[in-house]
Amino acid sequence: MSTVSTSQFSPVSSASSASSASSPHARALSDREVASHGESGGGRPLPRRWPVPSAVVQLLKPVTWFAPMWALGCGVVSAGVPILSNWASIVGAVLLAGPMVCGTSQAANDWFDRHVDAINEPARPIPSGRVPGRWGLYVALVWTTLSLLVGAALGRWVFIASIVGLALAWAYSAPPLRLKLNGWWGNSAVGLCYEGLPWFTGAAALSHRLPDGRITSLALLYSFGAFGIMILNDFKAIDGDRALGIRTLPVQLGVRRAAMLACAVMALPQLVVLGILFGQGRSFEGSVVALLVALQGVAMPIFVREPRKRAPLYNATGTSFYVAGMLVSAFAMRALLAGGR
């Protein structure tokens, strides 16, 4: 249920632009070369058998946990179930969405990118030697197992969502699929894992059953929009991605067309959500979401004029309005379910 690897998803800026490597001159190192790089990026091999605890935490990238945990919170709110009396399920679901599944995806991503990271980012936990040998892989495997156990403890539907999220996490980074190498597939996986699956998980964990179809519809709509957010993260390393054969959407479509696609994909599902809210009589929440969409609309032309320069700013502002709309929509759904509609 939670996420495939991405560095941040702004308010969570995100990552996984598809490449942790942006240097056009990067080449893959062997495992022996990676191990011998050491903390200085190229000194004597470190005689370390066990990973440094702080490096393991860094490997799991806590900064990336916010996005799926936010979406999970939206699922919790939308479920229409008393929150305080279900605190244990909420705590378990939050741990599952953030530290467990999202952490798994980050560890797996760093493991499969270790050879290129040894050239471009030698200070990262694996190429620096602070997570030595095959410990990066072991952490990803252990976290996968723990995630499945926690998911199973939270119920059948949460367990199913966990399986889907973990499968996408590994498919995103691991050969032979490596979805991250193609913007269409990689961004789709990230959007689903950062929004839809956590939202679904939050609702399922509290209700202990298959969530209402309207909840699932909201989760899928916001997952679709998150595809556009993922495109925003691909503008930061276009030249390096092109040189490395990483087919992000700015590489495939060109900068301007990719920027326009990002805006359209973010806006369209929110307009559908507006139709749902007003159609269900939730005029107040619909008006708030409409205002948030309008604020995004003001920023979009500025971004499209200079995508490379403006992507970080739009990622910080437009994405903030987007995720705020998610929470407002979740409260509207909670009210609908409470009213028996």
Describe the overall structure.
- With 341 residues, the protein is mainly alpha-helical.
- The protein has one domain.
- Helices cover 69% and strands 0% of the residues.
- The chain has helices spanning 31-37, 53-60, 66-78, 87-112, 114-120, 135-153, 156-173, 183-207, 213-232, 238-244, 249-253, 255-279, 283-305, 307-338.
- The longest helix is centred in the C-terminal third of the chain and has 32 residues, at 307-338.
- It is flat, with a radius of gyration of 20 Å.
The biggest beta sheet, please?
none
> How many H/I helical runs?
14
Sequence of secondary-structure elements:
HHHHHHHHHHHHHH
Count of the domains: 1
- Percent of residues in helices comes to 55-70%
Instruction: Tell the overall outline.
Output: flat
What is Rg?
20 Å
Overall number of strands: 0
Distance from N terminus to C terminus (CA atoms, Å) equals 28 Å
Overall pLDDT level:
89
Low-confidence runs (pLDDT<50, min 5 residues)? 7-27, 37-42
Structural class: mainly alpha
- Estimated share of beta-strand residues: under 5%
Oligomer: single chain
